[in-house]
Amino acid sequence: MAEQIIIQPGADKPNQDVFAETLQRLAETDRNIIAVTSDSRGSGKLVPFGKKFPNQIVEVGIAEQNLVGVAAGLGSCDKKVFAVSPACFLTARSLEQIKNDICYSDHPVTVVGISAGVSYGALGSTHHSLHDFAVLRAINNITIVVPADNYETEKATELAAASDKPVYLRFGKKVMPSLKTDNSDDFMFGKGRVIAEGNDVAIIANGETVYPAVQAAEVLKEQGIHATVVSMHTIKPLDTALLAALAAKCNAIITVEEHSVNGGLGEACASWLLQNGYAKPFKIMGIPDEYTVTGSQVEILNHYGISKEGIAKEVMHLISK
């Protein structure tokens, strides 16, 4: 039967804040944890961390390539390194360093993209991170994780600190309600979380798009349509066993992401399903391949239909075909 969804709006924080608090908690008992920032300890909520552990934080200034190089060097010395910088710059300016210095050199560094997606809003396309899933998916030896809420953020940070492999964590700036299920301890890399269950359609989302997907499921329920909602927090490795189960039981599948429709969660799911013989009505919701409109994060997402009403509308259209 469907799991019980417990939503606690107003009781939670931006995922970036929870990441910083969790990292500080872990550093209290593990002095090998090091944060490296590129003039981003403020936006990364790491000012308290730096005050408490001045010997466990490195500031390189606005120099993302140096950030990754320094992080890789520390990782080679058995430090547990978190390289924190705005996702739009971190995964573009320093992509070569992420590829060669961290992934191909197999250093235990967690690359942390903050203010991701369209979190920077009206600062415009130069500050939007709509490419990071696509470029990082093409690089061998990196786990890509996009937590949906504070619970997933805390668990992802803990797992990253315990990992001896490269990890990419992606966080936005919005306050996120907790999406708690009956299974209160069900987070692990590579395994999607089923937030709600239904047999008519599967809505697969990640990051800050999971909550509007849950809201859309409630709208659809009023129309007699029952949706499974999945937080597919790990894009790589993808939970293909869950994908297969969803394709077997649901009549249609729709993916939702705060990323370009090219190269992200949707294309990862579509590629695996098609190559493994699953033919179902399928829709990718994300940011289209165009000059992105300017506005706040909410205004941009609403413009592209990434809202409870927009997702519900796309589901209705998809299953009517």
UniProtKB/TrEMBL annotation:
GO biological process: isoprenoid biosynthetic process; thiamine biosynthetic process
Keywords, comma-separated and alphabetical: Isoprene biosynthesis, Magnesium, Metal-binding, Thiamine biosynthesis, Thiamine pyrophosphate, Transferase
One of the record's GO molecular function terms: metal ion binding
Coiled coil: none
Cofactor list: thiamine diphosphate
Transketolase-like pyrimidine-binding domain mapped to chain residues: 13-178
Source organism superkingdom: Bacteria
Cross-referenced CDD domains: TPP_PYR_DXS_TK_like
PANTHER family named in the record: PYRUVATE DEHYDROGENASE E1 COMPONENT (PTHR43825), TRANSKETOLASE-LIKE PYRIMIDINE-BINDING DOMAIN-CONTAINING PROTEIN (PTHR43825:SF1)
Family: Belongs to the transketolase family.
Protein name (record): Transketolase
Organism field: Lacibacter cauensis
